[in-house]
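Write out the 3D structure for:
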Amino acid sequence: MYVDPDYAEPDLDEVARLIEAHPFATLITDEPELRIAHVPVQVRRDSAGGLELVAHVAGLDPFAESIRQQARILVSVVGPSVYVSPAWYASRGLPTYNFVAIEVRGQAVPMDDPDAVRVHLMRLVQDHEQALNPDDAKARWRVDEWARDRTTELLPELQAFTLRAEQVTAKVKMGQNRTEGDRVGTMAALHDSARADHQAVQGLMRDRYDGEGRVKG
């Protein structure tokens, strides 16, 4: 993925946060042939300060064979994206998109310990339930005895793996090339929209820019 230096995001903490917020990823490998899978991923910082991903695919998925062969994988995470209209700008401009795109490359390491896979699955559920109901713990679905037993039955049908990031490329295009007035207009238009993707991008822009469109910090 080509990344203009203006849009590069080098902060691994921010990259991890973006993956956590948008965990459904595309897995791509060409070992032994071109294969693609679409799965949720977990992200964590490893002992060396890098990123590590944990995920799983169905055991019958051809991608599982690549994992068992410890293939190199590209993990693509696409965050929120919105069309930006020049009507929102304070100055002249052309239509564009604001968006988040992240690529993580590394070698798959099969996770074959059933207890480790079970922990991965339980944490994955907890992460998603918390994201779904961040302010209401009582509304979150919790794993009961039946769900635990059923998960144990399904473990042989899954192929889990970890991937330590050898290369991370993050592109966060949020109006860095526009004027302060253009940013203010874009944020205002997104704020007034009821669309969830507009609100998500507006939030990312607010994290970067103050009320006058200036870069924070």
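Helices lie at 12-21, 62-68, 114-132, 145-154, 180-191, 196-208.
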